[in-house]
Amino acid sequence: MAFSLAGLFRTTQADTTAVSQPAPRTENTGSTGGGQNLVPGKTVSGEVVGREGDEIQIRIAKDTVISAKMEKEIQTNTGQNVTFQIRSNSSGVIALRPLFQNMAQENTALRALSQAGIEVNAKSMQMVFSMMKEGMSIDKGSLQEMYRQVAGAEEADIPAIVQMNRLGIEVTPENLRQFEAYKNYEHQLISAFEQVAEEIPQTVAALFAEGNGQEGMALIGRLLTVFGAVEEAGQDMAATADGALPDSGAAGEAAGPAAAGDKVVITENIGETMQPGSVAEDMLLPKEEGLVSGQQEAEIMAKEGAANRAIPEEAQIALQDRAGLAELFRNAGGDLQLAEQIRQGQVSQEELYRAVQELVHRAGSRTEGEAVKELFLSKGFQKILQNKVSAQWTLTAPENLEKKEVERLYSRLHEQTRQLTQALEGTKADSPLFKSLQNIRDNVDFMNQLNQMYTYVQLPLKFRGENAHGDLYVYTNKKNLARKDGNISAFLHLDMEYLGMVDVYVAMEKGRISTRFCLEDEKSLDLLEKNIDTLTERLTEKGYRTEMKLMLKEESGNVMEEIIRADKNISMISELSFDVRA
After folding, report:
1. How far apart are the two ends of the chain, measured CA to CA in Å?
2. Is the pLDDT of residue 143 over 70?
3. How many whole angstroms separate alpha carbon 137 and alpha carbon 443?
4. pTM (two decimals)
């Protein structure tokens, strides 16, 4: 996969309204043979010649009229022409569905399909109508190409397929699922991360319960290794990925991936040795280079005065978990001195994590493996693992967010999910964990493709221990980056625990920033009003002139709807230099 978050910075028109048709009543039956040609799947067109309440009469030929009873209300008037698709015709009862009620568009659609040699049916009519709605050409070639894509699709997917074509997104089953998820606001990576953290212990426990202890230990080792990777300060991760990030000019310095030619740098985090005879000798990733044994770590800690040193609060093991973790660590064969230091709170989360890694690597018997499993699955250790996942898959200190941090996040996310799905393929490819990981990969891949044309990125954030979701979209189409007048228009959507959903519309022109905040309720509005001066001051310090507006929003923002709407009439085309640090 050429991994490159470039620039990184279903509506069914005809609904399912049906006409339930009693046995056809004909007047002056002629060559049409009454209802003989009313085959399911075919379409019939006719003029509404009468209506009273839910009863309607439709002339489908010069000398043939059918009488129908409406199951659902649709707007029809005497003299109006309507096209129906025949849904069924059995036992003297015909069920019809109106294709369109806008006759001007219907006639245009029918002519276009006829000229393209495409059969008139519900799918083809819906396809043409969707293309017209999106402002796309309905010439012969365009219709034939689009129909090849929608012929095997569900009717509910047709408008999405048409929109994806207009946006330049490849139509695949994976992309179609992601496109619908983005439109339905079910796309947030942060939610998927939390789901993965919950499903990890369930998957491990299931392996052991099925009698696959060796595979369970292997998975524990792989999980600890993957999330145990540590980046060197100021450097990217250890190995290069299988692709580069294209042009990031449109995404700017604040929230984009690397520029053209930059490599996505990731880690395999593979060490060199494996405990001979280990239950997971052939399946575990080797331990990290430089990882010391529990005894060695205890000696090092003693030399450094571990009992007297202060551990930052965020790095401490929770008080209520220490005694239980110490006992489980001791039962798994851990160093007794280190176990006591765990109980006394003299060991950090990171130190315990590394000590458990060592226990996994040297577990040689079924009994030891069971003990390590109990330690790994304990509530206390799962908190530590969840913190690890959150730390590596979210952007911390968002007030100082820079392009390289977003770049590293997606590089790391791409590689770690690859390693984990690979580890599960042979044993638990049908597990919810595997599906969640694959969904993350599909999501990132979809975002990557979207960024070939549009400047958009998800920002999984952590604010003071609180996870938050962000969408950042800049109103610019990369096909039209001809103007470089310094003007920017952007949409930022945030989901936060205390403020709820916040939509921020930003326009910047020659050093002047106009910002409109749209919040869910009065309480959030009041809170932001009390603190808006802080934001204004920060922007002023950076040399911007500001104008702020706060208001209650009428409906939730949706980034995909913003992209679809903006792409139809893009007036702001420029490079992104939006400073998210402000």
Report:
1. 34
2. yes
3. 30
4. 0.69
